[in-house]
Design a protein that fits this description.
alpha+beta; Phosphorylase Kinase, domain 1; three-stranded antiparallel β-sheet; 10 helices; Prot_kinase_dom
């Protein structure tokens, strides 16, 4: 699917009569898929290609509301990487901003195992500013969002992590409901009733629904407490003994990092979004951003039209509305 490309592989030359630059680029889904391939720039693998007798075929491995994820081979080193195709990137200003924000975050954190953030954003400290409720797949959606809260914190991420962790242990989705109300009922049945303080930002209709049920005490763990829990000690020790990149071995033994839970410094800055005012502007900025990412030591990549999987890749699409969980309930 991927080929080593020229310096500008994602934006081919314009046809006669077209202006040069991103406005004359290939179809949006191809651009976005190729742009997503910039993630491979952050893999700190060996620069020497590995010989593989049996190369695994490129194939789709999942899809959602905003994109399709494929498992493909990086031709530069033979490693398997995730390639995400996002159609309709330039459909409107909101979708443009979302994709650019996620590309910026991927390149900022430089983490090998992060493929995509979905609707990632920095924490909004101003509680007077309303935040979208169209976040997180319903099965992993925190109670405050299910109850119509217009402002939330990074605690919703802790909730999602907890749901996924329980799913890994139980081999099934923890709260698999058919509607937002049923989702909320499953949560309170297992974990108890949120306190009035926890429900202070919820809609009145949602509060009334919860308070009609039997009361059970409930409390959510913080990220700091979760990371300090003894349950993680063995896994953390195993990871830093043989799998991590922050520790290393010497002839005298293993040298461990002094900070097992490092904090990113400086923090990600999202103020650039305030200056994005048009689709064309964001298209130009994304184009320049991708070119900047290609200035590293590695050969840039492009989509290979001759690949056996190319037609399937181009025709692959996002989840249909009937396949997606219901949108957040309008309580009032």
């Amino acid at each position: 699917m991927l080929n080593p490309g020229q310096q500008q592989p994602y934006f081919p030359s314009p046809a006669p009569g077209q202006a040069p630059g991103p406005a004359a680029a290939a179809p949006a889904q191809v651009q976005a898929a190729a742009a997503a391939a910039v993630k491979a720039h952050h893999h700190q693998h060996s620069q020497h290609p590995q010989q593989q007798l049996d190369i695994e075929p490129d194939r789709p491995i999942g899809y959602g509301a905003f994109g399709v994820v494929w498992s493909v081979t990086d031709p530069r080193d033979g490693k398997r990487v995730a390639l995400k195709k996002m159609p309709n990137v330039f459909q409107n200003l909101v979708s443009c901003k979302r994709v650019f924000r996620e590309l910026k975050m991927l390149c900022f954190f430089k983490h090998d195992n992060i493929c995509d953030f979905g609707l990632a954003r920095v924490e909004e400290l101003d509680e007077s500013r309303h935040m979208t409720q169209e976040v997180v797949t319903q099965y992993y959606r925190a109670p405050e969002i299910l109850m119509g809260s217009r402002h939330y914190s990074n605690a919703i991420d802790i909730w999602s992590v907890g749901c996924i962790f329980a799913e890994l242990l139980g081999r099934r989705i923890l709260f698999q409901a058919q509607s937002p109300i049923q989702q909320l009922d499953l949560i309170t049945d297992l974990l108890g009733t949120p306190s009035l303080e926890a429900m202070r930002t919820a809609c009145e209709g949602a509060k009334a629904h919860i308070l009609r049920g039997p009361h059970k005490q409930s409390k959510r763990i913080s990220a700091k407490d979760a990371l300090a829990h003894p349950y993680l000690d063995e896994g953390r020790l195993r990871y830093h003994t043989c799998m991590c990149k922050c520790c290393f071995s010497t002839s005298t033994g293993r040298v461990y990092t002094s900070d097992f839970e490092p904090v990113t410094n400086p923090k990600f800055d999202d103020t650039f979004e305030k200056n994005l005012s048009s689709v064309r502007q964001v298209k130009e900025i994304i184009h320049q951003f991708i070119l900047e990412q290609q200035k590293g030591n590695r050969v840039p990549l492009c989509i290979n039209p001759q690949s056996a999987a190319f037609k399937s890749f181009i025709s692959s699409t996002v989840a249909q509305p009937s396949e997606m969980p219901p949108s957040p309930l309008v309580w009032e």
